[in-house]
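A.,

Following up on our hallway conversation. Structure tokens first:
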């Protein structure tokens, strides 16, 4: 099928296109339209015009619109799942495309039911003060390539639920599935409420600088987040930035190594490790270190890797060559500096960006694969003996998105969790986010939160009325 921009409810062609390839086969999947500055201006103008009426519709109508978008996602799930697998690489099954589309629909319906009622701050003989939550205007959404559809929904639904209008730009690595999804769900909205433009990285900078956009919500790398913050500064845009993590997991000595192996694996290898809040560094107490390494390896070696269209596959390729090369480089560096290979670390020539599931023992904090976010299917495992020391090691990074503690004693685990410098900490699991729980990072992992009432408020401004 052909792909196009969607501006003011109309399909808009472009003069320039980019080739998009299937990361599992290297085959051409489709051609992505490349928007010009003028077309971005058109999209922003359409969103601004639509905002005049959308911001005034009833709360009930906005709620129903979000439910309607969720229903469209359910009705077209298999079509979108297949395209997502072909474009992103993740498998149809397991924690793959069907999981992602289920999340899209679930988040849509849950967010539809959230409300921001008027708050009464004061009501006495001296007067009444009400706090009203008002929409911001045009929201610019810039999404990444790892969970392209679910993260688009995380941006779009709360914006529309609160009365804003949207211009969304997908990653140039995975634009096609988002173009198709937006085309589908925009059909239940008034023209101009939801617009999509696609193109190269400079389009994102144009959005963050654009005077007609009141807020940018961005999910992606710390480096790009910093650039967006700088380019948004002259227009004082509101920002929600969900950036990188280098999540640590701490395994206490009282664990049953076999019992936690599956949870550890999927904590680190969900989406092939291409997840902001995946387990990126695993610290294991010396008393159980070899047991954990053994059982984790036993589980990992039986997880099938391959083309995600195969219903039996549980892990797909790395999404793009840039990331594949980075993972290859970081693993090679670790091995050269003394890491012990438990599994993998032996990439084969294509087709596709298939990097083998890799477990590295005897890693040290100064190895690049520990200090940097690898964002791929390779997990470094480090040993410790002292709990105070390992907490300090876990916190000794410039980011703080997620973390986890693994223990048979939940109270002991919670005590450790409270000392970890990150926005979310899980006990005996990792990365299990929920639509009712605020999600965000500390330090370099971003600004603001997503999900729940707190996430909804990020798309509003406060107006106090004194009566």
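Then the amino acids I'd put at each of the 467 positions:
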């Amino acid at each position: 099928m052909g792909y196009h921009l969607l501006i003011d409810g109309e399909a808009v062609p472009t003069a320039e296109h980019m080739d998009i390839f299937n990361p599992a086969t290297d085959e051409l999947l489709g051609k992505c339209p490349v928007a010009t500055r003028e077309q971005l201006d058109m999209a922003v103008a359409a969103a601004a015009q639509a905002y005049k009426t959308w911001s005034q519709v009833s709360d009930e109508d906005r709620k129903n619109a979000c439910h309607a978008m969720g229903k469209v996602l359910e009705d077209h799930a298999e079509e979108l799942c297949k395209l997502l697998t072909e474009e992103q690489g993740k498998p149809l099954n397991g924690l793959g495309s069907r999981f992602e589309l289920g999340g899209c629909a679930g988040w849509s319906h849950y967010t539809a039911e959230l409300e921001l009622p008027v708050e009464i701050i004061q009501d006495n003989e001296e007067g009444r003060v009400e706090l009203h939550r008002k929409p911001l205007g045009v929201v610019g959404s810039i999404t990444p390539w790892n969970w392209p559809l679910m993260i688009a929904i995380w941006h779009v639904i709360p914006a529309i639920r609160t009365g804003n209008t949207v211009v969304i730009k997908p990653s140039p690595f995975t634009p096609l599935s988002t173009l198709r999804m937006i085309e589908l769900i925009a059909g239940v909205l008034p023209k101009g409420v939801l617009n999509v433009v696609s193109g190269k990285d400079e389009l994102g900078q144009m959005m963050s600088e654009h005077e007609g956009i009141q807020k940018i919500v961005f999910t992606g790398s710390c480096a790009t987040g910093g650039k967006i913050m700088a380019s948004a500064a002259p227009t004082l845009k509101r920002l929600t930035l969900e950036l990188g993590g280098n999540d640590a997991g701490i395994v206490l000595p009282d664990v049953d190594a076999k019992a936690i192996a599956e949870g550890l694996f999927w904590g680190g290898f969900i989406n092939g490790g291409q997840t902001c809040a995946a387990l990126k560094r695993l610290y294991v107490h010396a008393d159980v270190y070899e047991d954990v390494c053994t059982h984790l390896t036993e589980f990992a070696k039986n997880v099938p890797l391959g083309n995600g269209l195969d219903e039996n596959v549980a892990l797909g390729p790395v999404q793009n060559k840039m990331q594949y090369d980075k993972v290859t480089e970081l693993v090679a560096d670790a091995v050269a500096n003394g890491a012990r290979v438990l599994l993998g670390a032996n990439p084969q020539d294509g087709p596709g960006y298939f990097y083998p599931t890799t477990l590295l023992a005897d890693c040290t904090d100064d190895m690049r694969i520990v200090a940097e976010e690898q964002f791929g299917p390779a997990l470094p495992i480090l040993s410790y003996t002292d709990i105070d020391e390992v907490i300090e090691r876990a916190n000794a990074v410039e980011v703080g998105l997620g973390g986890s503690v693994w223990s048979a004693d939940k109270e002991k685990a919670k005590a450790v969790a409270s000392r970890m410098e990150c926005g979310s900490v899980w006990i005996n699991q990792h990365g299990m986010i929920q639509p009712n729980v605020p999600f965000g990072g500390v330090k370099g992992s971003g600004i603001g939160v997503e999900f729940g009432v707190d996430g909804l408020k990020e798309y509003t401004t406060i107006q106090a009325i004194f009566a």
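Residues 37-54 form the longest helix (18 residues). Curious whether your intuition agrees with the design.

B.
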